[in-house]
Design goal:
Elements (H helix, E strand, L loop, with lengths): L1 E5 L4 H12 L14 E7 L21 H8 L4 E6 L6 H10 L3 E4 L6 H10 L3 E2 L15 H8 L4 E5 L7 H10 L5 E4 L11 E5 L2 E6 L2 E4 L12 H12 L3 H4 L5 H7 L15 E4 L5 E6 L2 E5 L1
Parallel strand pairs: 1-2, 2-3, 3-4, 4-5, 5-6, 6-7
Antiparallel strand pairs: 8-9, 9-10, 11-12, 12-13
Helix pairs in contact: 6-7
């Protein structure tokens, strides 16, 4: 199960994306052999234009909860990434949280004070930890420092050893409890495809040696990471037991997003399971207890 992710686009185009996703949200069972889309993760458009990264600055706008509420009526929104320092962001976080939509700080130049205000309003996550967010500095710890210091905020982390180097991954997992970690992929439509050109929100990208970058600036533009290989990277770098790390692949996400009956293998829970070999390649996949894939 996963969240389909929208990027920073014009409102009309975003609505078209939501309308497409609406047709498949929650689909499973007989005749459906793909993973289940639980809802949508909106990465933008309410970001800091100085921290766009691979988002298109032409379509950045200030936080507007009514816009998200209207989109949510088309397809279920579970998560929104935004810059908490932007005008109206705190009010947006309060309204979204009250309506069951989690908010995550990303593409942001927020200070630690901004972070504290946002957390008090309901901020739940940090998006793509360390990437396109205010860095750790000894006179202003920014969002990176806030993530290390705070004992409650959950960290979304791309474990491909590209978005964060191996030493940073080890640092984060050494200083944060696994209960606060959310392993993600930020995986693109061109993932696992041959190297070559692509597109992200109207910006041309190029994939070379499995790394996606904007053609013009060279900025990282998402990943081509296979989820299980991110788990493999963390396990081998940190030595932490898989019985602990597996929480960061499923249980933590389900709990944070309010997805009942998902996220662990136990009586009464939905039988979603992935069987891996010793090199973390996928052998079998079960969705709702039904085998959907076998290598």
């Amino acid at each position: 199960r996963f969240l389909a992710t929208s990027v920073t686009l014009p409102l009309e185009r975003t609505a078209q994306v939501f309308d497409t996703v609406r047709e498949v949200v929650g689909k499973s069972g007989e005749g459906w052999d793909a993973a289940v889309i639980e809802g949508i993760n909106m990465e933008g458009p309410f970001i800091n234009p100085k921290c766009c990264g691979a988002q298109n600055p032409a379509f950045v706008r200030q936080p507007d909860y009514d816009e998200v509420a209207n989109l949510n009526s088309i397809a279920r929104v579970l998560l929104v990434s935004l810059a908490p320092e932007m005008p109206g962001a705190i009010e947006f976080i309060e309204k979204a949280t009250a309506n069951g939509i989690r908010c995550s700080a990303g593409h942001s130049a927020a200070t630690h004070e901004d972070f504290n205000r946002a957390k008090s309003a309901g901020l739940a996550h940090l998006t793509h930890y360390c990437n396109q967010m205010s860095p750790l500095h000894h006179r202003e710890i920014g969002l990176v420092g806030s993530g290390l210091l705070d004992r409650e905020i959950k960290i979304e982390i791309i474990c491909d050893t590209i978005h964060l180097c191996a030493d940073m991954l080890k640092t984060v997992f050494k200083n944060k409890d696994s209960d606060q970690m959310l392993m993600i992929t930020d995986s693109l439509a061109c993932s696992w495809m041959p190297d070559g050109p692509g597109d992200l929100g109207g910006l041309p990208i190029i994939v070379k040696d499995g790394v996606a970058r904007l053609q013009e600036s060279g900025a990282l533009a998402g990943s081509t990471l296979k989820y299980a290989h991110g788990l493999k990277n963390v396990h081998r770098l940190t030595g932490k037991p898989l019985s602990d790390l597996v929480k960061a692949t499923s249980w933590n996400q389900a709990q944070s997003l309010g997805l009942e009956g998902l996220g662990k293998i136990a009586p009464g829970f939905t039988a979603d399971m992935v069987l891996l070999d010793d090199d973390f390649n996928t052998c079998k996949v079960f969705i709702d207890g039904v085998e959907k894939y076998s290598a």
